[in-house]
Amino acid sequence: MEIPLIPDLSNPKWLIIQKILKTIDSKRSRKIASRLKIQDVNIFIDCIKVLILADTFEQDYSYVISEINANINLRRFMELNYLPEVDYLYKFISKLENNQLDIYLRNIFKISRNIHKKGRRYVIIDTSSIPVDINTWRKRYKIGKGKKYRWSHSSSEGYYVGYKVILAIDALTFEVLGFEILEGSPNDAKLLENFVEKLCNSKKVRMGDFIMCDRGFTSKTNYHILISRFLLVPMIFARKNTDVKRILSTLTPPISIWNGKKYLLSIWKKIVKEFVEILEIWNVFREIRSNIELFFNVAKNCVRLNKVHQFTKESVGKKVIRAFHLTFELIRISKSFNIGIRELAEM
Domain containing 154: what range? Predict the structure, then answer.
């Protein structure tokens, strides 16, 4: 049974949503939207408000719109100038480019620009399954290799129909640094190099930063790539059969030092030294690395990312963009109300 949406400011969840809606309705938000060349900014803002409310209460868009129509207090709480019809909202979402939505949400929920300049960043990278909400029995003839849908597999979900997402967040602030949606179930270890390269190109990750991953990313190649190609400190949890001595003995300095960049050699030596020191204190970083699991828990339990009702990579992408940026903002605001992340995931 669907719960009625009645604004209650004694409830922390409604207070958090109120803060988010005010951010979306701010002058800064409108300026960001106008810079993205969105034609009707006012309608765009109202549509985003409806999407945010639907996502945070894990309700269908049609139900949320009907609740706003039926409840004048909810409409006042939302401060809407225009309430879109369901058909218009779906058309609006389909016409909106993923890049536009990502830039808009990233900028309105952005934290201080100078945080990365103050020191080195601890970055956590992990993957998660994104199942789509389809009847696998009824659609069984459309599922398989070369067909409309594909089977995927994960240790937590088992076999499912959907996508896989690789995500990078700041270990301390939970800021979303980057993510990519992938079809099927590619091996985690094979995804790391290309993903880190994109993070470095976008300057979300810089030389000397720490990269934290679980055992799924463990491979000798990944250690070598992070240290010698990107000059990053790998904090990849090693498997029991990982030969760390062999990894260290086969490390070579970056080729670029022979092309007039001799200063990189001292940086490389420093990173290797830090890597050796970290090998002896793996367990210290377990709790920090688990922050990305808390992030995924909030995204799946609070923003309905556990089973999405979108069926194409493009539409799933829009859902993931909203879910990740909204999750970051929910975590950030909940701290001001002294609400823990685990408590937030159960709200």
Answer: 116-291
Q: Is residue 179 within 8 Å of residue 207, measured between CB atoms? A: no
Report, in angstroms and rounded to the nearest whole number, the Rg of the chain calculated over CA atoms: 22
How large is the average pLDDT for residues 132-155? 78
> Do 197 and 127 belong together in one domain?
yes
Domain count, the chain: 2
Between CA 83 and CA 69 the distance in angstroms is 8
Does the pTM surpass 0.70? The reply is: yes
CA atoms within 13 A on the CB side of 203: 3
* Cβ atoms of 125 and 102 closer than 8 Å: no
Q: How far apart are the first and last CA of the chain?
A: 17
Distance CA 224, CA 268 (A): 11
The DSSP result for 136-161, as a single string, is TTTTGGGBSTTSSB-EEEETTTEEEE
Residue 302 is predicted with a pLDDT of 87
* Amino acid in position 265: L
